[in-house]
Amino acid sequence: MAAMLSIENLTKRRRSRVILSDVTFRAEPGRVTGFLGPNGAGKSSTLRILLGLDRAGGGRALVNGRPYRELRSPLRTVGAVLDGSGAHRSRTARAHLSWVASSNGIPRRRVGEVLDLVGLADAGRTRVGRYSLGMGQRLGLAAALLGEPEALVLDEPVNGLDPEGIRWLRRLLRAHADAGGTVLLSSHLMGEVAEIADDLVVISGGRIAAAGPLLEVTAGHASLEDAFFTLTGGAAHRADGGSR
Amino acid sequence: MNLLRLVAAETRKAATLPAVFAGLAVAVLGSLAVTLLNSVSVRNAAASGNLERVVSTSPVETVFAALPLGTVGAVVLGVVAMSSEYTANSDDAGGGRQITATLTAAPGRLSVLSAKALVTVALVAVSAAVTLPAGLFLARAVIGDAAAEAAAPGDVAARALGAFVYWSLTALIALALTALARSGIVPMVLLITNSSLVSFSLLLSNVTPLARYLPDLAGTGLFLGDDADSYTAFDLVLDPLPGGLVMAAWAAALLAVAALVLHRRDA
Questions:
Q1: Does residue A37 sit in the same domain as residue A110?
Q2: Contacts made by residues B209-217, CB under 8 angstroms, sequence distance 24+
Q3: CA dihedral B125, B130, B135, B136 (to 10 degrees)
Q4: Res A240: pLDDT
Q5: Are A71 and A161 contained in the same domain?
Q6: What is the ipTM of this complex?
Q7: Which residues of A touch B19 (CB under 8 A)?
Q8: Residue in B5, B19, B267 nearest the CB of A104
Q9: Are B224 and B237 in contact (CB under 8 A)?
Q10: Which of A10, A81, A136, B227 is packed most tightly, with the most Cβ within 10 A?
């Protein structure tokens, strides 16, 4: 069975501030799950807990029923893109992907393959510090695809991509899900999510406001945008904090 | 198996990080430059018959007098192994830090820290293996017959090994402190100042003899050898073995704390 991502009753506090309260949802194989919410709603925190980067106050986040931290070669199961490429600025893309590959026993030939795949073949020997935002996103995707994982977890992946890049990404994610893979992507851009998601999870103020197939969540609303503002109580207008 | 992969990954990281080469350059070229300067002054002193102007005329002592630069190099190697994880990328490239990539690739914090420690010690070993023999060769070549060599070969070998252990433990302490601080700036400034300009432990030893158990002072015997007390006014320096063990205990304790904090703290 392909990787299922399940988030169960997650809670998280930072000092006295509640970041997440009782967040529960799933991302199923063969489907693209859009994780939608205003900035500061708890999207990144949820994904960081799922990837074992941050600790939950309560609840659990599981990949195929196991916490991420227990996976032996995690990059072969889950590929993730969080803030930026995760590459050190003084390294080249090739050098970055090479160490990532060796950390999970991934063959070196994959480095060239993923660079081709994301359109960075000509920039593989450029220092990452000289990359544009869009190139950084592409490099992050290259690292995520390195281990040919069943699941992709992407935090705001269209940030910095040009229209052509967005279209390319959309096709890539669609193809991944159609091949039976799991895709979970967060965004604060409703249009992007509406274009690609099969399932929708709407988060607002650290709570899940709605979850289900796209058409079910938006039923009774004129558009996803209407549904979003109704569900989040206009929270998008008081966008506080940032995506970390 | 998993640890081997992580050691391979950390080796690749080190081999492609410019700051690592800066650390190696300080350790190797810095030490050799100081050794050269010291050797020239010993030779000049001998030539002019003013041998009382220099601390020691022995080529071996001249080499060991340059050790603080090796310590500085070790500090740089230990610090950058960890601080590079927390350096933010430029905002233009989306910000972000390497620690995210590192911990998603290898979620076991203890394994990551162990791999970093092993690679750091290997780099220190490389710098020691180059610096000490090259320094000795340089000092002998410059000083020549101008001064007699007092040190016995076995003693020299033991002190060279001690210097490598001292550098390694210093690098590991730097690594642990940087992991705790999540930034290289404070550990770098603190440890470089302490090992080159002002030894805080030495200052503190004026207040309390307990200062001899602080890591840097405790390990001093490792490279000073058995007659370490001839270098200091007081019976301050521990013997090589107990001193080395005290310093190793510091390094182990700090690494354990760093592993625990990495395990619990949000990345």
A1: no
A2: B209/B234, B209/B236, B212/B236, B212/B237, B212/B238, B213/B238, B213/B246, B214/B250, B215/B169, B215/B170, B215/B173, B215/B246, B215/B247, B215/B250, B215/B251, B216/B170, B216/B247
A3: 90
A4: 43
A5: yes
A6: 0.92
A7: 90
A8: B5
A9: yes
A10: A81
Looking at CA atoms only, how far is residue A215 from chain B in angstroms? 33
B22 interaction partners in chain A (CB closer than 8 Å): none
- pLDDT of A104 strictly over 80: yes
Mean pLDDT of all residues in B68-74: 94
Domain count, chain A: 2
CA distance B116 to B200: 27
Residues 111-140 of A with CB under 8 A from B: 128-133, 135-137, 140
Residues A175 and A123 in one domain: no
Residue A74 per-residue DSSP state: G
Confidence grade of residue A244 (pLDDT, cut at 50, 70, 90): very low
CATH number at residue A15: 3.40.50.300
Q: Flag if B93 and A132 touch (Cβ within 8 Å).
A: yes
Residue range A152-168: mean pLDDT, rounded: 91
Of A13-22, A121-130, B172-181, B225-234, the least confident: B225-234
Q: pLDDT by residue (tens digit) across A63-80?
A: 999 999 999 999 999 999
Q: Which of B8, B13, B104 sits opposite A51 (nearest CB)?
A: B104
B18 contacts A133? CB cut-off 8 A:
no
Neighbours of A106 (CB within 10 A): 22
Give the pLDDT confidence of A181-231 residue by residue, as tens digits: 999 999 988 888 888 999 999 999 999 999 999 988 888 888 888 888 888
For residue A244, tell me if it sits in a domain. Answer: no
Domain spans of chain B?
2-264
Contact across the interface for B100 and A53, Cβ inside 8 Å: yes
pLDDT in tens, B28-53: 999 999 999 999 988 888 888 777 76
Same domain, A132 and A196: no
Instruction: Please state, in angstroms and as integers, the Cα–Cα distance from residue A141 to each residue in A177, B9, B90, following that order.
Output: 16, 19, 18
Residues A103 and A157 in one domain: no
A48 touches B at CB < 8 Å = yes
Query: How far is the C-alpha of A33 from the C-alpha of A199, rounded, in Å?
Result: 5
Distances B167 to B158, B244, B257 between C-alpha atoms, Å = 14, 11, 20
Q: Which pLDDT band holds residue B154 (cuts at 50, 70, 90)? A: confident
pLDDT at B104: 97
